[in-house]
Amino acid sequence: MSQTRPQLAHLTATLNELKERGTYFKLRVLDGEQGPVSIYDGREVINLASNNYLGLCDHPKLKEAALKATEQYGVGSGAVRTIAGTMKIHLELEEKIAAFKNVEACVVFQSGFTANAGTVSSILGKEDFILSDELNHASIIDGARLSRAKIKVFRHKDVAHCEELLKEVQNEPGHKLVITDGVFSMDGDIGPVDKLADLAEKYGAIMMVDDAHASGVLGRNGRGSVDHFHCHGRVDVQVGTLSKAIGALGGYVCGSRDLIEYLYHRARPFLFSTSHPPSVAATCIAAFDLLESEPERIERLWENTRYFKQQLTSAGFDVGGKTTPASETPITPIIIGEGKLTMEFSKALFEAGLLATGIAFPTVPEGKARVRTIVSSEHTKAQLDRALEILTGTAKRMGIL
């Protein structure tokens, strides 16, 4: 029985609303390693819900690196980076990422969220303008709000609309920032990084890309959307994550040496958060080595992605492109529409042996609820075929197909 005091009764009311709408959820608990087949809530299920694109979460070389670093450096850094918490291994990781991304410098944050929010909020102020894709990640939205800059939202991937907005503000004082996701996390489509970079150059704007879901997925050896579009040297701020394809935890910002030095001095999450445990830094270094030495992982990821999308489409599922953007990456949404039905479908899939998370408003717009699936490089064809059987059988039983 909840012991909520009257001062927080409005929270209980909101939870009750979610229950009535059928979009209330409980956290599923993983017992064991994150893999293509995992044990959640005591049930073995095919896992199509994680961001473990390349199967690195439990890779032996990453585990070995983490154990070795723990033995050598201990379990924590004991301080924020600017006081006493910058360890040699943190700098090694940042140098590794900067070389991988073909930029001057890199700084690692505690998460992809803090990398985005901390960067946007620190490099702009109230006299400035942010031009942001309407489907950009929540961390970009929060960073934009914290910056107090004037926010202009352009229609999803609509370069002409972005240019209209740039023209409106080109003679205003203040800096202009154009920002897009490299890969959009709910629809799996790719941002028009090259065309937006053209605009940024034309109007003298700062160009920024959030490559959380493109890192390890797009570009040579997973270098991301900037490499995919051959835009090296044209994107001022590149954000990436260490918690998805890289398999560990954290985010990073890449760019010029001056950008990184500035973030050392002004990015609040960097200034006020303890640095990564050395085991995490070592794990990430090992992961970037693997991206270079095992490119076949990315090839397998894309083979599985093409096969799974094709089979879903053949079965009659809406995987985007009708009422939502078309998926172009391993993120493949199955659009259901109504929130309650989506959550019921996700629950039924789990009971049948498949983990595929239902996502509804406010994460996605009303009427565009979906079950989001993400294949990995480590799924076998047999596992994907079984997942397709479960999806098709359950959807037919529930009248979705």
TrEMBL record:
Modified-residue entries (N6-(pyridoxal phosphate)lysine), positions: 244
One MF term in the entry's GO annotations: 8-amino-7-oxononanoate synthase activity
Primary enzyme class: transferase
Cofactor: pyridoxal 5'-phosphate
Gene Ontology terms: biological process: biotin biosynthetic process
Span of domain Aminotransferase class I/classII large: 44-390
Record EC number: 2.3.1.47
Catalytic activity: 6-carboxyhexanoyl-[ACP] + L-alanine + H(+) = (8S)-8-amino-7-oxononanoate + holo-[ACP] + CO2
Pathway: Cofactor biosynthesis; biotin biosynthesis
Name of one Pfam family that matches: Aminotran_1_2
Keyword annotations of the record: Acyltransferase, Biotin biosynthesis, Pyridoxal phosphate, Transferase
Keyword Iron-sulfur belongs to the record: no
Functional description taken from the UniProt entry: Catalyzes the decarboxylative condensation of pimeloyl-[acyl-carrier protein] and L-alanine to produce 8-amino-7-oxononanoate (AON), [acyl-carrier protein], and carbon dioxide.
Sequence similarity: Belongs to the class-II pyridoxal-phosphate-dependent aminotransferase family. BioF subfamily.
Subunit structure: Homodimer.
Protein name (Swiss-Prot/TrEMBL): 8-amino-7-ketopelargonate synthase
The species this protein was found in: Terriglobus albidus
